[in-house]
């Protein structure tokens, strides 16, 4: 019986720097929410008969996003890399609007905060849709899963000195 979901998600900590408390909180929430509810189907695998669930280690190497996928019993199923270049503009803009959002919640009116938050969510959706496109042919995910994975991609991107999440 197919069980197309993630049961374990880890960030390769050897590829990242220490996070601020806010970033670590976002990472923990994204992983928790991802494990609570996700749709994740590996389309290519070293074991074509295995139908989930999956374990994922997400990291970066040489400017590329790395996906290491294994079975529930830790059998390696697939390893692939995605270029980060297509994500850079969205991530840069997302960090900038997140900075604006965190500043706004200190002093701005509720309508200003809501407007900034709508922009933030829009960029997050754009990044999630791009991730779904880049995973095409390798992994099939739903939008909620892609959103949570995009949050983790942003966390990994911090190693290159980008702003806070």
Describe this structure in words.
It contains 4 helices and 6 strands, in the order βαββββααβα. Mean pLDDT is 87; it is low at 159-165. It has one domain (6-160). The longest helix has 26 residues, at 110-135. It is an alpha+beta fold and 165 residues long. A 4-stranded mixed β-sheet has the order 1-3-4-5. Strands 2-6 form a two-stranded antiparallel sheet. It has helices at residues 21-36, 85-107, 110-135, 143-157, and strands at 6-11, 40-42, 54-61, 64-71, 76-83, 139-141.
Main β sheet profile: 4 strands, mixed
Task: Report the end-to-end length measured between terminal Cα atoms.
Answer: 38 Å
Query: What is the succession of H and E elements?
Result: EHEEEEHHEH
What percentage of residues falls in helices of 4 or more residues? 40-55%
Q: How would the global form be characterised?
A: elongated
Instruction: Indicate how many domains the architecture comprises.
Output: 1
Strand-residue fraction? 15-25%
Rounded mean pLDDT score: 87
Which strand order spans the largest sheet, edge to edge or round the barrel? 1-3-4-5
Q: How many helix segments? A: 4
